[in-house]
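ingest -> fold -> write
write: protein_1
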Amino acid sequence: MDRNQRRGASRLRGVKSGQSGYCKAFERQIESPVGDLLVLDRVYLDKQWRGFGLGPVVAAEAIRRLSPGCCAVATYPAMGEYSKGRDETTDTDRRRAKKKIAALWESIGFERFREGVWLLDTAQQTPIDLHQQHCAHLKALAHAYRTA
């Protein structure tokens, strides 16, 4: 588990208040906070596949397949690669990338939780509907490509 994962996981547990399990804020945000927690670390696409709407489809499909038995999915949007190199990347670059990554997570049903952590409630219908919308968009794109 890397530093971002440990940081995110610590924000969900109730250990600071002496309770076991999830923290009270998590229990208030998740409809049925009983079960495992899936942590989505990153979604990576080769550069030639970017810009076609595959990121949300791949992420949502991974969640659909991996989340049975989980009450929620957690992620912590952060840069996974650096076009300029890690040391040369400016704070402005980081903020821009984090905003773009957060928009992707939001587009598949994640909601801001706290301290940079985002949660997706697996009991909600919204993530399912959003996944279906992304799949329909991808099918339309594929159809347009084939008929062009």
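write: protein_2
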Amino acid sequence: MSPVAAAPAVENAPVTETAPAPKRPRSGRTIHARIAHEEFFDYQPTSTADLPDPRPLVENLTRCVVEILAGARELEQIARWVTDDVYSTLLKRQVISARARAARGKPVIRPAFALGSTIICEPRDGIIEAVVVVNSRARSRAVAVRLEGLDRRWRASAIHVL
């Protein structure tokens, strides 16, 4: 016999029904007040006229992203300048790059590259889309960046290394 005793089975136990708990509102505010509260504390769009020149930020973000994917820079260093979606996407790409380097047995080396031309356009007020050409010894790449003016500063809402 096992040291753990089995609990006796209850076959014909009476079934008691409990009344459902009364529904209470999630908060004391109405739905309109909650929406207004969320809109007030959410990211606030900012006009391009109220923001600094985006060219230095675009070029520095491009430089940082190339170094992050090469493993020479930590992703947390640009967390302030990117949205949560961009951060999670870059984190995934950083992990994939690190695994590929480990599989080939290559050490982390700071990449040698030069930034080429930068093209910036403004499709809408408070939105900047830019492309930066990155030239290295082996190849040239393009990095596309979309900046949005949020809370009186630029934040990258999309970064793509092509």
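write: annotation protein_2
Strands lie at 113-124, 127-136, 140-150, 153-161.
The chain has a mean pLDDT of 85.
pipeline exit 0
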